[in-house]
Amino acid sequence: MDHGRAGAEAHPAVLALHHEYGWMDEAVSGGELWVARDGDEVVGAVELIELDSARVVVAVAVVGEARRGQGIGSELMSHVLGSRDAEWWTECRDQRIGFYERLGFQVVPAVDLPADVLPFLDHPSTTEPERPLNFLRRPGSGTL
Length: 144
Known about the structure:
Blueprint: E1 2-6, H1 11-21, E2 32-38, E3 41-52, E4 55-63, H2 72-81, E5 87-92, H3 97-102, E6 106-108, E7 134-138
Parallel strand pairs: 4-5
Antiparallel strand pairs: 1-2, 2-3, 3-4, 5-7, 6-7
């Protein structure tokens, strides 16, 4: 399995992963894109929004349905998190909290969420717009 940054050439495959997951996106975000590849096949993706040099939002993390539960997401996220020392933010469903906690994230009450982070976390094109939001933060080594 190869992990690394990807460019626009990976957008169609990443968009297909979004659709597999039920998201109705018509385009991949303009953020930094990382993918997991099995040969030429894109099997997972993480999309980042860098707010500044010290804060990053994981806007999307997805693995293809047939490949879930094989450690691909954990491996890819570990590579992404190792790419820089930053404070990381994300949002997830209840059943994904454990995944992010194993990667060093902690649940943060919505009232403690910085206002400039919030617009990048709530995925507006999900098929379940009323789902509860769980916000998570992973401090960088220089973050108190």
